[in-house]
Amino acid sequence: MIDQTRLPVEEIYIECLDYKSVSDAIRNMLIRGAPAIGVAAAMGVSLGANKINADSYKSFLLEFQQICEELAGSRPTAVNLFWAINRMKKVTKDNNDKTVDEIKKILKDEAIKIWKEDIAINKSIGKHGQELIKDGDTILTHCNAGALATAGYGTALGVIRAAWDAGKKINVLANETRPFLQGARLTTWELKKENIPVKLITDSMAGHFMKKKEIQLVIVGADRIASNGDVANKIGTYTVAILAKEHQIPFYVAAPLSTLDMALTSGDQIPIEERSHEEVTRINNKTIAPEGIDVAHPAFDVTPNKWVNAIVTEKGIIRPPFKENIKKLF
Q1: Residue 85 — very low, low, confident or very high, per pLDDT cuts 50/70/90?
Q2: Per-residue pLDDT reduced to its tens digit, 165-183
Q3: CATH for 19-124, among 1.25.40.10, 1.10.390.10, 1.10.530.10, 1.20.120.420?
Q4: Which end of the chain has fewer CB atoms within 10 angstroms, the N or the C?
């Protein structure tokens, strides 16, 4: 995987040889983005299972469950993490009559299948979502929901890529996305590689450009979506959604169906990760705040469904009323 903490200065690839290194990579945001975390977790489960020394399904399962629990504890908000682990658990349970070596092979095949499926899903999201973009539009993004956040192609950036590939002349404004700067470091890096016109702006500039009518739509990814259409995404998304509503600009979310958590009735039930104070007080190991200052650092916020115009999935575009229309896809 690319070490995303080094971008855009260095393009460094790291190799994870065991599940603990995968867990650390997820926890420390070397890899991030809900779909990418899910794929990495599935591969981590397979790596862990491969090294289990057991001669029976029962003894294999005991250690296997510990591996799954450790990976599940790496980050709390992105539902794809738990979705992928649960899928690997189900495969194991469904093959409890096989030998341990056979189960290990099945788990490896399943992890690779999840990876390939994610790329196909993202391309399908792009195909559906690009219909929302008109020739000449300027699009605002927040955080990074591109190839780096997935197994490849991207969700929100996948929609932008698909519009560009369809020949639409578009422009992108990328919010820097403090404090981890995913927009500044990652989104601009991806779009620049694709030669898609992009300008970097600070998070506080979005309202200014909306007021000047220089933004035609907003599209973001998601880390978890409740069954009523409430959306958890990187901190600052809530603010962008309110600004878009005030300026009558469509606010779209692009995410695979695996990001929808049908067990949650509203976004109030989505756990919000609190991350290290140092991510706020330091940039590139340089201190930007007084020593010892108290810090609040929720990594995500929840945008109520009333401010979302549509959710783009691999099965098509979901529009309000979300509660009823989301159910139709399950």
Answers
A1: very high
A2: 999 999 999 999 999 999 9
A3: 1.20.120.420
A4: C
